[in-house]
Amino acid sequence: MSDKSTFGAKPEQLKKLLTAIGLGESSTGEQNDQTVSQAAPAESFIEQPGTRIGRYKLLRMLGEGGMGIVYLAEQQGSIRRRVALKVIKPGMDSKRVIARFEAERQALALLDHPNIAHVYDSGTTEVGRPYFVMEHVKGLPITEHCDHYKLTIEQRLRLFQQVCQAVHHAHQKGIIHRDIKPSNILVSIHEDQAVPKIIDFGVAKAVSQPLTERTLYTEQGQLFGTPEYMSPEQADMAVEDIDTRSDIYSLGVLLYELLTGVLPFDPDTFREGGLDNIRKVICETDPKTPSTRLTKLGDEATSVAEKRRTEVAALAKKLHKELEWIPLKAMRKERSERYRSASELADDIENYLKGNPLIAGPPGTSYKLKKFVRRNSALVGGMVTVMVVLLVGIVVSTLFAIGQARARTEAQIIANFLEDDVLGSLRRAKIGEATVSYVLDEAAERLEGKFKDRPLIEASIREKLGWTYRTIGVPEKAEKHFLRAIEIYKLTFALFIIDYAAGAKASIRNSVIREGTV
Amino acid sequence: MTGYHDQTDMGGLREAFLTTHWSLVEHIQSEDDKDRVLIGLLLDRYWKPVYCYLRHKGYDNEDAKDLTQGFFHEVVLNKELVVRADKAKGRFRTFLLHALDQYILNEKRRQATQKRIPKGKLVSFDIISPPALPEAVSRLNPEDSYNYAWTASMLDQVLSEVEAKCMEDGLKVHWCIFRDKVVQPILGDSSPPSFEDLCEKYVIDDQKKAANMVTTIKRRLQKALNQFIRNTATSDDEMQEEFAEIVKFFSKSAQNSR
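^ inputs. structure came back:
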């Protein structure tokens, strides 16, 4: 262009220019350009305030999404009220976008919940662009609302519960939202009560059947949603069966943000490296625990805590104790490990608030083991088989040795040992170091003095370590553990016999005394 | 790409289309382009996104310029690169980026910067003094900067083409009114002049007529824009995807800039 290049313009200026030209609109170039009869000034490409669409008068633009523009409008006629009118953007009225737009309208029309914006009406503009009219929600995005009013953690949880219930309602109606994020959940104040409302079902999808056949068409090849809140299966476009658990994940991210004031993945690095990196992070990186993330925020942590009417240490403690298990469970990479429903997530919040045991828990041994296997699949191989035999052997033989009465307690002790000392060594190992022998050596070293009060457990573990060393061809170490196990058994059972004998002696003495007094 | 017509089955036999960006590459490869007009066209159109991307990948000005030239040399003369990037074929923008990544990788492996530029450059193109990267671009990641520069280049070309055609067709006033009313206010962050002012400036008796002139140019631009994007894709579906991606990119940029 001779006057001015667009190179150097701000992205929003390029966007405006493309919109003004009418990106994607079908050109009517075949017509004689000179015969245009109606005035159509450039501003009319986008509806301006004052324009009427049906019985609605546009007052001002409220926002702009990927495919639509939302206006504050006034409904004329017998019912006069302010509404939000969403109209498809000029140039976006391709089949694909219209299908998504229609899906959103249908999705919203199916829903009737106090925490979801109602749809009142729909239609098409004079030039054929579809629009729909919905409840105008006057409020702040949920995160901003919470910070603005300095809501405590408990108040935030109460608000979040309502969001969960609204999402659950949508799920029950067969609608997955697919783009849950703070800006899609506005909180308004009604009679001094904060009411969150989900306002945007722009990328919603029917669970059981397509809302329209066209909706499926929109699925191909595009990443819908907002990456920061997107579930692994949603980010991995190879996975087609997105289900309600995808929303559970996004709710988990939202809860994480409500609790800590930051997103689970550092936004500065998250989007670096483009879509592939985003997918990789979402699908493979475990988020830091909220308490860890909070304590690493530095000065920002003080501000985060203040907005929750607490102090950093107190907030970190509260999160660390058990609250952080909830978002982390909701955000598990494996869908089957998340909450089964948004309602269950709300229930677990209730459990927390009432001090009841949570459904969520800290990541357990099996979770950590699975994660280790996933990360080290090449290394693990036969090692896992050997380890499993070892671990199961220890548990079974110990249970036999100690009897059922103490089984539960002892099993927990063994589980802790396995988790902290055996699996812990896997986590501590350098790449290529975590061989079977390495793990056994680590476990053996940590065993020393660990079970002073429970010698039978130690004997049992040493026995199994001995067998495993023998299996992998380290007889000298095997012998050492066998000998120690025998020593413990001898000592323990000898004491037991002495105890038994002493008990029997006392019993006999007592009965003699009783008989003598009769 | 006006004035050069070709029929090709690149992108599939289902459609024959004229002078797409794909056929341009193919013709350069098949040595039809002895006077290097076509490669000049290709360089002229796409050096900015490629250069921007490279700068954001951390290359300095000189290296980015060398690599840009080297890349176009490879992309049009090294069929292997095209074949390997073939999975992304369909949308030219995606192809080019994919091929560029591949090229960077190859270059790193080779570590032979001396061989990067062929003896006697293919064609001169004006990156001797590349424009300073705008602030808007400096905040973007490499992929986004590429998309930004791609879109800016596309807009520049479309606007230039339509402007030139208007001059040819005796529609200079039409063009000037559109420029004053739409382009300049947007790029200059200023208020658009009223139709009344424009009528006075260009001596037009009726505001409605001036508005119609704007619509005329808008239609020409729409047509040129659609044609441009259509030429970078191999089907209507891909074209729609291309539209959607451009819109998505700008929505994301707008979010990030907030």
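Confidence is low (pLDDT under 50) at residues 26-44, 206-223, 511-518 of chain A. DSSP finds 20 helices and eleven strands in chain A.
thumbs up if we can close this ticket
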